[in-house]
């Protein structure tokens, strides 16, 4: 069967990219606002055009063949170059405009979103569409299928693979031990893991960056932390600490303004206690003019929030 990939248009490449990322015709149909039968028909058109089998039946669905995977991987480079060229032309002709879909987890939106909105007043043609996505650190990358930018976090102890994505590092936020004001450690300049491991803990769900720091403390001391409650809601954690119900690891920049008069934040020594915040994006979406602007302004906000003496 003869054919050529040169006859493929942008829509064909997008379809292959989505199938590679989402793994099923029905998921691609939902993402591209088509019916499954329309997606299947387009896949047949693409196969006839290139003269090769790109998908095979697999159970009740389909999967990409080696040829299909190769073409889908190549589509990423083509779509990225296309977006970069389009962005360069638009920058020459017009100001940045368009919709940008951005996902934050809760404490990141509290830390960064107000400043981002302030800075984007200079770009009235950019419309932000927000999503709240508080997930474990290995679950952020798949969200880039549905968002242009995903603000994610990871702990010092773990670096998560971001295959095929652009990653913009935003900031390193130290984790402090939050204790009640009348606690024996409230006035200390710092504490060691051995000083705190036997306390009652308020912690996030397992797999979240803050919990990974607590797990590292446990590994260093050889003791199992006594966790009374797990929650992703930082204000609840703060309130429970202030009420004397336990101690917690809390992100410094996010929490410090609310700690005064309520609870003490004590730095943790002898342990890599921090979380890293970053922005994830598909490279072709990151190349869009409006997305570029949002990423640049988000980076500027993060730089203003962080203390340079604490970075690294």
From TrEMBL:
Residues 8-65 form the HTH lysR-type domain. Keywords: DNA-binding, Transcription, Transcription regulation. It comes from the Bacteria. Pfam families: HTH_1, LysR_substrate. One of its GO terms (cellular component) is protein-DNA complex. The keyword Transcription applies. InterPro entries: LysR_HTH_N, LysR_subst-bd, WH-like_DNA-bd_sf, WH_DNA-bd_sf. One of its GO terms (molecular function) is DNA binding. Belongs to the LysR transcriptional regulatory family. PANTHER family: LYSR SUBSTRATE-BINDING, TRANSCRIPTIONAL DUAL REGULATOR HCAR-RELATED. This is DNA-binding transcriptional LysR family regulator. It comes from Microlunatus parietis.
